[in-house]
Amino acid sequence: MRNQIASEFRKLTTTRSIYAMLAGLIVIVGLGVVATTTDGEPGSLLSPLEHQVFFNVSLTIAPLFGLLLGLRSFTDEFRYGSILPTLLASPVRRRVLGAKLVATAGGGVALSLAAVAISIAVGVPILVIKGIDVMWSTGALAMIVGRLVAATVLWTAIGVGLGLAVKHQVAAIAGTLVWLLAAEGILSGLVPDVAKYFPGAAGFAIVGINPAELLTPILGAALLGGYALVAVATGAILMQRRDIA
Fold first, then answer.
1. Runs of H (alpha helix) within the chain
2. pLDDT number for residue 196
3. Which of 103, 104, 175, 233 would you call most buried, defined as having the most Cβ atoms within 10 angstroms of its Cβ?
4. Nearest to residue 7, comparing CAs of 80, 78, 102?
5. pTM of this prediction?
6. Which of 151, 79, 145, 147 has the alpha carbon at shortest distance from 114?
């Protein structure tokens, strides 16, 4: 198992995908932080660092990139045909699945920390330029980062499971994004009492976005963990029962 995990980490770090995603994450989070700090009301910028609105950019974007990373972990292999040599080298399919879960979780942690670092690196200088004293609580900031990492890791697991179940990369990514970016928003207006139990809402609950309308972070983590378990279990069952080629 250790060799398989090392192999998956090697795939992750020696392909251009992760670096392209990291670059995209940096650009999007950086621009989002600039937009929220320059257009924000002066009074809203007086909050401690951990309560600054610009943190919502990284809290929203990093889990989405973690999901995309998970989706691509298997769909890239199906798309380019490398799944066959992967399984020839390690015929125990559940071992390959477990290794990918570990590797993408590591990638999700890296993306989360990068998003937070960019938020601070861009947001703090803007606050200083505006003449605002920057204050923070180390414990509260660490809690925010921990919640973000937890949410991103769970989304990577969901991505791995869905990518394995669907196999087709475009269908997996497009279908997931349509659900998160459109369907959940539409259904939340139709069934608002049910909407807080959707995966996207559970992810927001973990990181503390819209706390008055969503579940508590612990319940959100439990719910999103349940979605992750179902997605991974579904992918694992289909992986065992069907032909890979």
1. 2-14, 16-39, 55-80, 83-89, 93-129, 138-166, 169-178, 184-190, 192-195, 199-207, 217-241
2. 92
3. 104
4. 102
5. 0.93
6. 145
